Amino acid sequence: MRTIFFHDSYDKKQSSRPNAVLSVDMNNNRFATGSIANPIKIWEVRSTENATEVDFIAELDPVEDANRNVNIVRWSPDGNFLATGCASGAILVWRKSSDISPSQSEDEIQPKEQWTIHKRLNGHSLDVLDLAWSPPMYNLNASKQSNNKENMQPSSTAPVTSLLASASFDSKILIWDPLSKSEKKFIIEPIMEIKGDHKKAVQGVTWDPLGHFIATQSCDRTVRVYQINQELFTFFPPAPTSTPVKKGKKVKPTSELCSSVEVIRSCSIQEDEDKKVMLYKDEQAALFSRRLCFSTDGSILVTVTGQLPERLAPQCNQKEEQCLDTAYLFSRNQWKKPFCCLPGHNEPIVAVRFSPVLYQTQDGQGYGQVYCVLSKKSVVIYNTRITHPISIMKDCFSETISDATWSADGNHLIVSSWDGYCCIVTFDEGELGLKLSLNGDAKVIHKIMDQRAKGVQEMGVVEENVQKQPVTNVVAVRRRVHHHNNPPNAVVTVE
């Protein structure tokens, strides 16, 4: 495992610190960073046998925000669009417009691509704190409207799109369709607004990779799960049909896109007790984000800023803020009570990100999923098949960790921080396990989906067992490399 640190805005002559990097997101071998008072930047990672290098690709200036504060960046599933959420409440969706001819100047690094604003999304009045793209989904509503003119039922010709969910400090969740080919306007409105459910800032939103659920987390100490109307948008291809609609029969009007399924606030931890405990920290924790996450196969929802009840941690005092920090894991469709917790953290957990790669078990009969848990000062990597961490990285940054992202092949983990630096962790092939190859085979993917419930049960994760696991594999960074105006190519060895 190799680690490098970089950020290009550090100015040694002026002794100024880099501005905070608030978000990072990766698609294939490219990643984007959002920062305070800085343009959005797109980078490209190149790995060799002995080094990991980063090339500067493009700079996106969010002129819609006077202060250029970008809180969140997220790539669309196809990697052709980049959604960015600003402190002004604006959401900008970018696309590549052209390549740039290389400059003859050697004084500074020139961008290689030009990106322009594709759509501007208006709807939030305060900071946009999180964004989440849906998987590619069939727009059955558009198909109904089109086929209704020909008196035909919706078919597999339904257009495919990716929806975008946004969470904001104004306590609203908005859902957008910015990639719709039928939408010709530059400034678009949300297709649905969820307002009044959360009473305070919504700091995290995640989309189920199977397209059925959206989950949100707020500093009002709740996690809310919403179900997507599968008659409007669905992940699975609709069955092709050409059955004529009877004369005079009209297609039903469009109903709501999603509806509330569950509000997760408290639960009774032990079966023999009726007393419920609050699962999450309140706004006094002073956290910028609470970025929860669905697992790669959609079988698990991991929620953040959890607090471990005293009865599971006898060493805690009566005061709530002195209890252990944790993350809670929920099985799909079982939102009443978490099946697992991850104690042992000394600071509140602010975000979780899953690797897009599935890893085979040693017996070849199942698979595990690797994910990282971010607290203020540490990054802990887990596998869903075991209860103890794979690796723990501590004190890599001087300020709070803000976000993390995985490469498509699972070999790179990039972590950003409020101190203005990014850390790239490179894993050797096979270091995290034997990868399960899907190769886009729909039959294999559906088979894995059918085995979700079995996979969760096989993990055998029990709260009491998790609590007894020691903290192992502490990664010690030997040296830290600062990069100024040049792309980084140095490597930090780790123990």
From TrEMBL:
Gene3D superfamilies: YVTN repeat-like/Quinoprotein amine dehydrogenase. Transmembrane segments: none annotated. Keywords: Chromatin regulator, DNA damage, DNA repair, Nucleus, Repeat, WD repeat. It holds the Pfam family Beta-prop_CAF1B_HIR1. InterPro entries: Beta-prop_CAF1B_HIR1, PTHR15271, WD40/YVTN_repeat-like_dom_sf, WD40_repeat_dom_sf, WD40_rpt. GO terms for biological process: DNA repair; DNA replication-dependent chromatin assembly; nucleosome assembly. It is found in: Nucleus. GO terms for cellular component: CAF-1 complex; nucleus. WD repeats lie at residues 63-94, 195-229. Residues 21-140, 158-432 form the CAF1B/HIR1 beta-propeller domain. Belongs to the WD repeat HIR1 family. This is Chromatin assembly factor 1 subunit B. It comes from Acrasis kona.
